[in-house]
Amino acid sequence: MTKRKKVYGFLALVVLLAVSGILVNQHVTSNSAETGTNIAARTEEGAEDGQDDGVPVELATVVQGDIASLLTATANLRALREVDVAAQVDGVVKRVLVEEGDSVRAGQVLCELDDIPLHIRLQSARQRLAQARSQLEKARIRREKARVQIHNNKEDLARLQKLFRQQLVSEREVAQLQYAINALEHDERIASSEVRELAHRVEELEAEIKQVELEISRTRITAPFSGIVVERHVELGQAIRSLEPLFKLGDFSPLYADVYLSEREARRVRPGQVATIQLGADGGTQARGRVVRTSPIVDQTTGTVKVTVELRLASNDQFKPGAFVRVNIQTDRHTDALLIPKRAVIEEDGETYVFVADGDIARRVKVSVGYESESQVEIRRGLSLGDRVVVAGQGALRDGAKMNIVRHRSSSESSRVAQR
Which CATH number fits domain 73-79+251-333: 3.60.21.10, 3.10.180.10, 2.60.40.10, 2.40.30.170? Predict the structure, then answer.
């Protein structure tokens, strides 16, 4: 084989490979285009099928029920009273009988101070009192003796004066008897003065004894009212001064919540109205209370009126002073009202409306609402009992749009779901 033939054979092979590559590429491109067209067609077909099903929605039925008008505010609970129990005498703590959290009765002993020095003072005062009483009794006897002698001598003087006028006795005898009477009167005055001084001394000692007995009684620190020991500031062996606080005592029955309402809202509040007190931000625990009083003035700084709500419970394990609560005051109540879930109501451009199911077609209906609760709203105009309203999915609806009803609840059931 010549060199020329080899070159021509190599060029023919290159041309054959190039033609084969072009044919393969065209075949792959046509297949890819066909596949993309099929996918787009199927996607469009799926979209058309979804549109035919309508917008997925959840419905609830309009029902009749009771609903209240509520004023809501927050507050912190406070006790009926909370005071510091202080010592009224100086002393050293001998016994501590209660701890924080203990329930105590009115008059129950909380702690005791050492009273031995006071008992010694009491014994000394009683001995001095006995001595003063004895001296007082002797002075009274001397006074009475002088009075009797004076009385008798005056009778004798009268007889002597009569005899003297008859010149049967001398003037000297009359003068001697008068002198004796004067001496007795002087002794009687001295005895009377001693009686007064000793009587005053006896009264002082009796007052001193009462004071010491009072101080002894005050060494027993007692509860001024029934309640719970909130704080204890005293330790065994501690030397305390008079008026030093030893315990903090609180009366937790009832508890009070002071809420502050605007002047307009406060006009709707009256003593005796029912209130619901919800514990904490979640409101999981609640109790029933009542309005006991409203302030007669408006706070000039805040423009609010203070309203006091009373909470009485047999057990205060959950509700404690200082706890954050939400207070709902019921000012009015409508019975047999038309009710729907609050989440069915849409507000737009100053109008309130809902979507009502007409078969599987959504109709936009303008409504007038009344009282509201946490989960329900009163419909005063626009709906009838038994109407079905959209409570979920209404964001994608337009008037006359087709709906795909995936769930239908009663109004009360839907409200419970919303609350959860």
Answer: 2.40.30.170
DSSP-H helix ranges across 74-229: 116-165, 171-218
Residue 44 — very low, low, confident or very high, per pLDDT cuts 50/70/90? Answer: very low
Q: Residue 143 contacts by C-beta under 8 Å, 6 or more apart in sequence?
A: 188, 191, 192, 194, 195
Nearest to 164 by CA among 178, 152, 148: 178
- Give CATH for domain 56-67+335-419: 2.40.420.20
Q: If you average pLDDT over every residue of the chain, what do you get? A: 84
Per-residue pLDDT, averaged over 71-90, amounts to: 93
Give the C-alpha separation, 319 to 77, whole Å.
8
Question: Which of these, 220, 237, 249, lies nearest to 99 by C-alpha position?
Answer: 249
What is the spatial distance between Cα 360 and Cα 401, in angstroms, rounded to a whole number?
8
May I ask the CATH architecture of the domain 119-202? Answer: Orthogonal Bundle (1.10)
What are 368-417's pLDDT values in tens digits? Answer: 998 888 789 999 998 889 899 999 888 888 888 888 888 876 555 544 44
